[in-house]
Amino acid sequence: MTKKISYRGKCILCGDPGVGKTSLLAQYVDGKFSDEYHQTIGANFLIKEIDLSNIIGELNIKNLKLKEDIKGKGFKLYFWDLGGQHDKLFSNEYYFVQAVGGFIIYDILNKESFNNIDFWISKVRELSGEIPFIIVGNKIDKNQERQVEIEEAKQKAKQYGVEYIETSAKSNKNVNKAFENLSIKILNTLK
Question: Is CB count within 10 Å lower at the N or C end of the chain?
């Protein structure tokens, strides 16, 4: 019997330190959340097989043979949770290479992390090329402490022509949706 090799790709999570990249990834991959903050040095690396049953109908792949092949073989994403220290990024630039998609994540409670979205997008484009990405506003479980208004974030996403979604790693709000939406965008780039 021949083993089916799934489709796979590398996805990067970018953003300033403390925005919740590690927490979002832990919630999505392992269903876990920790209130303890541990700064990522370099990168964390996790793999998740994407459940295509929820998203297969939303794929706009014109090649029906390819669509059926993906459905049969599955889709794995290798997630690289990148440390957010701007001054150490030069030593981590190779983590961006060959990425097929990404998240630009900011903390809705931290205006500076939102202001740095442009920096992260420029890094992704410089080092990964024109890959699909989503802007994510995290920590909506603390919405009453919000420093970045939804409309301002939507305008930023519109400026770049990308999707914007708000999440909470703590309450698991929109976490699966964010990862599924990015998976759809990545798969729709396949020919």
Answer: N
